[in-house]
Amino acid sequence: MTAQIISGTEIAKQIREELKQEIAELKEKHNLIPGLVTVLVGEDPASQVYVKSKVRTCDALGVYSERHDLPVDTSEEELLTLIDKLNKDPRIHGILVQLPLPKHINETRVLYAIDPKKDVDGFHPVNVGKLMIGEPDYLPCTPHGIQQLLIRAGVKIEGAEVVIVGRSNIVGKPIANILLQKKDGANATVTICHTRTQDLAFHTKRADILIVAAGRPKAITADMVKEGVVVIDVGVNRIGKTESGKAILCGDVDFDAVKEKAKAISPVPGGVGPMTITMLMLNTVRAAKLGAGLA
Predict the structure, then answer these.
(1) Beta-strand relationship, 35-41 and 94-97
(2) Surface-to-core class of residue 184, CB atoms within 10 Å of its CB (0-12 exposed, 13-18 middle, 19+ buried)
(3) Dihedral angle computed from the Cα positions of residues 122, 123, 124 and 125, in that order, rounded to the nearest 10 degrees
(4) Is residue 3 part of a domain?
(5) Which domain holds residue 231?
């Protein structure tokens, strides 16, 4: 069996072209330019890379962007004051506070301070609750990206046995909620596995669709999946460096072995990763339309 490679790079490119056209129409017909602000506290190298990528994507799509880079000793109150200001700024439709924050700042308090209508990450409890009851304004970016990978790759989700490895608030729980809703692109039977699951392979072998966000390199091996499974690998693990110093990455799935049994599989890198920022842009456009009464 030759597995279909589900390329997040290509699917993200398709969605960005669609968004670019939609953003141009919003500007032309409604004089509306979606706006996204990123807030970075400190100088975490990985966070700086993510923020630069988000700003670059905004520029490419025609989204108005602001970037607030704050020193590492910024107080929690100073950060909350900035968020309050951004909540009231009509040019800003989406607010993204880059995590992790320095230890002296309470992440929960900061995330809860963001206006739910501008919470384009989908982490605010109001938006989590709306997702739970099937009436979301925004879907969390990485889980929504996973759903779009499946849909646009032509994978049948309705009625499928979906097994998710990992129960994080960022991936595992929200993708489970998305795929079990009584909606198009969902209607699956969902099982969540985690570190206390007994006999993990028993569950993963039942999966028609296996979504892995375990945080452990090559945790899923070929003997843990059935023939014809569709695999979405969310993990990104650094397992070494090349001679030139470039990081060697792998997923949570043993890609080379599992692809011999899979019907379709997403690679690492180039799978889920490119989808996350793309869905952030989609949420920002939706926030602008909601704010203008156009959604």
Answers:
(1) parallel
(2) exposed
(3) 110
(4) no
(5) 141-273
> What are residue 255's phi and psi, to 5 degrees?
-55, -50
pTM: 0.94
Q: Tokens for 272?
A: 């889920």
3-state class (DSSP) for residue 69: strand
Q: Directed axis angle between helix 45-61 and helix 8-30, to 10°? A: 50
179-226 pLDDT, tens per residue? Answer: 999 999 999 999 999 999 999 999 999 999 999 999 999 999 999 999
Alpha helices (runs of H) in the chain, residue ranges in sequence order:
8-30, 45-61, 76-87, 107-113, 125-132, 141-152, 172-180, 200-204, 255-258, 273-291
Known catalytic residues are: 54, 98, 121
The number of distinct structural domains making up the chain is 2
Q: Is 206 found in the same domain as 258?
A: yes
Q: Are residues 212 and 90 in the same domain?
A: no
